[in-house]
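Hey, I'm writing a tutorial for new members on how sequence and structure tokens pair up, and I'd like a real worked example in the thread rather than a made-up one. If someone can provide the structure for the chain below, I'll link this post from the tutorial.
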Amino acid sequence: MLIGAIMIMLSGVIAVGSGHSQPNLTPAVGLGDSITFMNHEAFWLDHGVPGATVEYISSKLPELLPKDTEQVWLMAGINDLLEGEPTDEIVKAMASLIDAIQQQDPGSSIFIQSILPTRKGNKVNEEINQVNSGYEQMADIKNNIFYIDLHSHFCESDGETALEEYIPDLHPNKAGDEYWNSLIFQWIQENLQNN
């Protein structure tokens, strides 16, 4: 039901903050790691790759992203952090990935979803916040690049640790995937739907 509602909203002409309207925003492709891959509730065509880093996604972009994709839903960076990659390098890698997507499909809309919190300890969660801050700065509505803060909705009161009911460790459970998709639906209503 929720997935159908999202697809209906995305199937028409959507006005964005730049004052321009975009053509039909489907098909949608989800690019990311195992978190994207395991979200069986998502409305996008799933091209998540378990274990993928941002750089890996960039290197495989021609294989992962069909030509003329109109929406790209990105969530990546947690594996980079777990491998010890510096936060600023992850942000640079994401910027390069976005450039590559725009070169391949200049008319595509890119939705950067924040990295979700984990229950893996304070250090990684602090680094997630740093990377997400860098991702947020990449948002450029005039160029169809949008940032979606999912992270804060999945956190306990400390603003870092994942809510166990949705994310028992690293990956969201079924309830977490459903909540994730409801947040996307809410974001679309608030930010993209015609007034």
